Amino acid sequence: MERKEFKAESKRLLDLMINSIYTHREIFLRELISNSSDAIDKIYYKALTDDNITFNKDDYYVNIDVDKDNRLIKISDTGIGMNKEELENNLGVIAKSGSLQFKKDNEIKDGHDIIGQFGVGFYSAFLVADNVTVISKAFESDTAYRWESKGVEGYTIEECSKDSVGTEITLKIKESTEDEDFDKYLEEYTIRNIIKKYSDFIRYPIKMDVTTKKPKEGTEGEFEDVVQEETINSMVPIWRKNKNELKDEDYENFYAEKHYGFDKPIKHVHLSVDGMIRYNAILYIPEKTPYDFYTKEYQQGLELYSSGVMIMEKCSDLLPDYFGFVKGVVDSEDLSLNISREILQHDRQLKSIAKNIKNKIKNELKNLLKNERENYEKFYESFGRHLKYGVYSDFGANKEVLQDLLMFYSSKEKKLVTLDEYVSRMPEDQKYIYYAAGESIDRIDKLPQTDLIKDKGYEILYFTDDVDEFAIRVLMNYKEKEFKSVSSNDLGIEADDSENPVDENENKDLFTFMKESLSDKVKAVKASKRLKKHPVCLSNEGDVSIEMEKILNAMPESQGVKADKVLEINVNHDIFNSLKDAYENDKDKFKLYTGLLYNQALLIEGLPIEDPVEFTNNMCKIMK
Ligand SMILES: Nc1ncnc2c1ncn2[C@@H]1O[C@H](COP(=O)(O)OP(=O)(O)OP(=O)(O)O)[C@@H](O)[C@H]1O
């Protein structure tokens, strides 16, 4: 028996390999199964050009045997096998890929199904094994060879016997240590799961003996273990199947199988792109918000496959954050993988796929909005808030993509409407898109600030999500129409006050006195042009609205931001006569009234009253 040492570089590399390239030990099986699949593919490619070879699909498969008692896992295939030279070159020289060479030698340009390219995957066997034996008989060869290695020390090669062409790799699994559990790799269940996770779409059957409990014949209530060979992998991924052959149900089953969510997806998109970068994808728009969606734990991303082998469970770079709710898979043959297949080398291809996916999702949502309104509203109920965050984040960089997907409740339509619908029915004399922010639709409905706008017959959009007003500030305008809060000081409306004209210069002293008695609680007190039925309301000057003040102050590290509030008084309301009377005859009463009106305005806005006890005492004073 010849004993050979790994070449010096190989020794270092092997050490590196075992200890640092891969982060998950379980990928050893992915690598060895991928090698077997490549070996079968090579026969397949040979058969394509050589009429003497017939490729009978049933004869080609991978077999996994687990021998728990002897701590052995055997991966055998009926692939092309290796002769002595190939065993030496491919397994004795690290970073030499026979598969890459095969592609070159055979000028296989579209041989993307061949997975191997770096010449290192095989050595990942040493992540879990302390001894690896390879028995191989090459295609068209009479002799078989056994290659054996315990790791860095080197390997031995000797002739042996093997009946059929192909390769058998036997791993002697390491003993478990305090820190690491290796025993689990001897569990049928673990092995099956690893195969499903990484190698489900390998094109050839991966067979394995599976133990199931079955009722024992001739007994009642007794069960026995029955061992049966099963094909573990699904082989043809759904995304490679013809769309016309698939029903909605198939897509829904895949969604459930992959545990993308407990809901039924609202929409799926099946893409087969054959451009500069080829890829297949299935994307899902879920119906319900995952329970952890708005938490740090939620990980967005699509499952990424390369030639049917799973590379990444959640590739976040494939989705923009604002479409982070989308689930699904992408499979591309054109990705530049890095050596561990855990990360990608160049992100150029990935970026191009991501851009394409972003546009597809956007168009799909637009179509949903246009053609399946009810479904879109269901989707919007779950993820509308997320889209609005998308508008707000990154300084509005994505507002163009998202603005047409937004919806808000309309005062007129009493349902969700889009900005486009709002703008298209704006009367000619209406300058702004009006909105009112508040806790709920009911509360906003009753806001006195909306009186004038409603009187004019203008529509108001109701903002009930925290993020709404912030997003709109970033959006600034839609189709050249600016957004305007109903609480804003200047509504851009000429009030029709012909019946009860409001002269802003009248009662100036009274308002100045009111302002002084409220000191810095308000910026100004003035006669209102917007109030119709209510005696009082707050409006605001400047950039921070009252609603924003509420939201910002509810945040954990609030800086005590304040809106510049203006107390507006309805001079045509009966109350104003009492106010005037008190101003002329009883200044203490006037101050009492001022305080009450201010607190009423706070209550209407849903703002806290600074001193509720004083407020109720003052009410009692008046009732006396
Ligand atoms: N089961 C097998 N049957 C036939 N040849 C094999 C088998 N396993 C490995 N080989 C040969 O050994 C070479 C090295 O395998 P290894 O897994 O280290 O690298 P690779 O598959 O070429 O590339 P990668 O590191 O990208 O997986 C392969 O290219 C192939 O030529």
Automatic annotation (TrEMBL):
Which keywords does this chain's UniProt record carry? ATP-binding, Chaperone, Coiled coil, Cytoplasm, Nucleotide-binding, Stress response
The coiled-coil segments of this chain are 351-382
For region A, the annotated ranges are 1-341
Q: Where is this region: C?
A: 551-624
Write down the superkingdom of origin: Bacteria
User: Per the annotation, which location comes first and is thus the protein's main one?
Assistant: cytoplasm
Localisation: Cytoplasm
What Pfam family does this protein match (any one)? HATPase_c_3
Q: Does the keyword Membrane apply?
A: no
Family per UniProt?
Belongs to the heat shock protein 90 family.
PANTHER family to which the protein is assigned, alphabetical:
HEAT SHOCK PROTEIN 90 FAMILY MEMBER
HAMAP family assigned = HSP90
Give the matching NCBIfam families. PRK05218.1
What the protein does comes down to: Molecular chaperone. Has ATPase activity.
Q: What is the name of the protein in this document?
A: Chaperone protein HtpG
Source organism per entry reads: Tepidibacter hydrothermalis
Q: Which gene encodes it?
A: htpG
